[in-house]
Amino acid sequence: MTQPHSLKDLVARKGILQAMSTHSPISAKLAEEAGFDALWGSGFELSALYGLPDVSLITMTQHLDMVRAIVEQSGLPMIADIDTGFGNAVNVDHAVRAYERAGVAAVVIEDKSFPKVTSLIEGGRQEMVRIEEFQGKIEAARGARRDDRFTIIARTEALIAGLGQEEALRRAHAYVEAGADMILVHSKSTSPEEISAFIDAWDGSRPIVLVPTSYPEMTVERMRATGKVGIAIWGNHAMRAAVTAMQRVFRQILDDGGIHNADREIVPVAEVFRLQDMDEVKRLETDYLR
Fold this sequence. Notes:
The chain has an eight-stranded parallel barrel with strand order 1-2-3-4-5-6-7-8, surrounded by ten helices. The chain starts with 6 loop residues before the first helix and ends with a helix. The chain has helices at residues 7-14, 25-34, 43-49, 60-73, 89-101, 131-144, 165-178, 193-201, 220-226, 237-256, 269-275, 278-288; strands spanning 17-22, 38-41, 78-81, 106-110, 151-156, 182-185, 208-210, 229-234. The longest helix has 20 residues, at 237-256. The chain contains twelve helices and eight strands. By secondary structure, the protein is of the alpha/beta class. It is globular, with a radius of gyration of 20 Å. The chain folds into two domains: 7-236, Alpha-Beta Barrel (TIM Barrel); 243-288, no CATH class.
């Protein structure tokens, strides 16, 4: 399903969009039914789905195939997390063309070196590319897109890498200069104060995108009060919720020696049929199978 709206227009109209992480079409359907405004095509979640660490091991083809499958099953705008752009500016050009054709509304590209290491791991290698190199990636993304409504979000990992506020702001301004439509600033601090300091110092020239995984006290209400945040991404909660539920149910089945108790705690098969649109299959069979 094509994405009919510009994220920039939606932010201007609504104020703050809430994007839920997704790693599969069924998780996207559940996010849409819950009432979220957008989807986050999470590299972390898709890596986890394959049982792999989030260190640039899944390929662009694997990521794009799943993003395309999600877009086909959902009417929500998709923000595709393409990490470092799968390489240099030439790779970014190729990726943006492919993701736009797939119907996504936006891509997020981060300023770490390829291959990257997931941001929130304790003691992880967090190597940054030069500002000028990343500006080239943003410019390549802008040159590759066919529709100006396709949103390019530049993500700076300066705070993740421990480079401080001044460097984070310097990079963010440079990325706006290169043509970024929004700025995602990331932090692994368990307090929202580091991000709040960045927001206070930001000139507001572009909306800020936040992923408050490590600082959950940063609520939508608090973001809205700044007047500078355009999108809140709940970055890995679909996968974490799925793992929580599966661990609990799997353990219960073994402990009980059967499914007699666990079966009462999970959705019936009929609910999965609903999410699979089995009623439409039955209609098609009735109408056309002869």
